[in-house]
Amino acid sequence: MLSLFAGLPFGLLASITLAIAIDLPVKLDVRVALNSPSANIHLSQPEASLYPFTVTYGACHNSVKQHEQHHTVSELVKQGADRLIWLLPDDISDRGCLSAWSSKSDLVGRSRPLEVNKNSRQWRKKRHLDAGRRLSKRASIPMTNESGIEPNGPWFDGVRLLEDMQIGAVDAAEAKAKQIVEAGQRLGGRVHTAYLEGGPSDYQYQEMGPQRFPESIQYAGSNETIPLNDMKLVFQLVDIINQLNDGDANATVKFIPWIETSPNGLSYFNGFKKADGLPPTVSEVEGDENLFTQIQVDPVVGNITDQIFAIGCDPEIMAATAKNVFTAYKTFINDGLGGLGGDDWSEFAYFHNYLNYDLNATDQAINSGGFGGRGGNSLWTLLFV
């Protein structure tokens, strides 16, 4: 690996850089070892007069100019952010420095020299993926028009936009203001935070809570089963991850059966509890109608609910979604709801504004029957979620 200061002892380089940086107004620091292709850059809160300024990575010596730096990390235009997300490029050199440059290309900040360990496990994984090795035994699904996946569709437009975007700055204080309530040592719970590098204060984490991955759908009242092709992408990715981790028990992704309901599961509805203060179980409710609150359903609400089910459980749309979710989505957005366009109306607007059901009936129907009360969403969510 070539160094930006080959031959110069690292300790001497650090001393020289520290002497340069100590009087500069912008302080830059990386608080974890650079063992992965991403890191947080911590920066001081400079005076407003210093903005905008640009952060780069490159040589550490005092005579280097901004245009001679290896790459640009980010540009900060206003006060507030105290962290930068840094994606390290593949050709990054060792023992370089982060530098801050004013709008006139004057040096206003510099970090200590940084050692990059590109022999780490995380870097090796990235090189394997970038090399495009076909590690999965499952058949791959090409992202082309031939497979029915429109590469110029809205989802891919978003991915392309994110790839071209400059990495933004983060206001850590604002991010920390978000409260995450996480359960532990008990059954249930959808939130599980896994820290990728460092600890909680470094804010490099991923939500790794449980999720269901359906393999197929079966129509009610028949034995017809249709595989969900888009889920094959997930299982293919898991195969690749497990092979990259080479049998590491702590890093292996394993699937466990999804239990949708259980006879011993608690049925807590409308605040109803038994005499002992506990909600009844599913099997108890099925055996005794007095164990749940009876609700009189307005016939109009029932009519709306039937129409919601007709849209969300349409066999043709379900089959098309299972075969190719991308083309099914495009068809529904363009021609769904009887040609109106599936994305032109929210759930609430379709039933209230278009079909002219009253507010109360519409609200009651959407907020019941397991629809989640998301009346502002597109009706596509009934088909895909």
Structure, explained:
By secondary structure, this protein is an alpha+beta fold. 31% of the residues lie in helices and 13% in strands. A 4-stranded antiparallel beta sheet has the order 1-2-5-8. Helix 7 crosses helix 11, helix 8 runs antiparallel to helix 9 and helix 10 packs antiparallel against helix 11. The radius of gyration is 28 Å and the shape is elongated. The two termini are 48 Å apart.
List keywords for this structure.
single chain; 385 residues; alpha+beta; four-stranded antiparallel beta sheet; 31% helix; elongated
Quick structural summary:
By secondary structure, the protein is an alpha+beta fold.
Taking all Cα atoms into account, the compactness measure Rg is 28 Å
> Structural class per helix/strand content?
alpha+beta
Order of the strands making up the biggest sheet = 1-2-5-8
- Which range does the strand content fall in? 5-15%
Uncertain regions spanning at least 5 consecutive residues:
1-6, 133-139
Largest sheet data: 4 strands, antiparallel
Query: Given the C-alpha coordinates, what overall shape results?
Result: elongated
- Helical fraction equals 25-40%
The strand count comes to 12
Count up the helices: 12
Instruction: Tell me the distance between the termini.
Output: 48 Å
Mean pLDDT: 76
Q: What oligomeric state do these chains adopt? A: single chain
Helix/strand order, N-terminal first: HEEEEEEEHHEHEEEEHHHHHHHH
